[in-house]
Amino acid sequence: MTPAQFQRAWVLQAQADAERGVLECRMCRRRGPLEETTTLWRNGLLVFALCDRCAASHEVVFSPTQAGVEVRARRRSPVELVTQEVPLVHGPR
């Protein structure tokens, strides 16, 4: 599926979901109620949806372009990765 086909499929699904009051966040892909989602509409079509959780942890910038809307996001705080040492597992001898 090309990016343009994927975008069109997302827009069609998002329109159907918005009519039911449920949207999928474009960042984390979680579904949530419309009232907990920031949305961007253009010419009557939903072009972007962002859940409150992602909006709280990211700086999001929307910019108009000739092709549509560019969306950029940057984390507000660094991500901490915690790793554990993998225990050695000895198989049958």
Short description:
This protein is an alpha+beta fold. It has helices at 3-20, 52-57, and strands spanning 22-24, 31-33, 37-42, 45-51, 58-64, 69-75.
Throw out a few tags for this protein.
93 residues, alpha+beta, two-stranded antiparallel sheet, 2 helices, 6 strands
Task: Characterise the protein shown here.
By secondary structure, the protein is an alpha+beta fold. It has one domain. The chain has two helices and six strands; from the N terminus they run αββββαββ. The strands form three sheets. A two-stranded antiparallel sheet has the order 1-2. It is elongated. The relative contact order is 0.13.
| Class by alpha and beta content | alpha+beta
| Quaternary structure state of the chains depicted | single chain
The pLDDT mean sits at 81
Number of strands: 6
Given the structure, what is the number of helices?
2
Task: Please bin the fraction of helical residues.
Answer: 25-40%
What can be said about the biggest beta sheet? 2 strands, antiparallel
Major sheet: arrangement of strands: 1-2
Overall form: elongated
Number of domains: 1
Q: How much of the sequence is in beta strands?
A: 35-45%
Could you spell the SSE succession in H and E letters?
HEEEEHEE
Low-confidence stretches: none
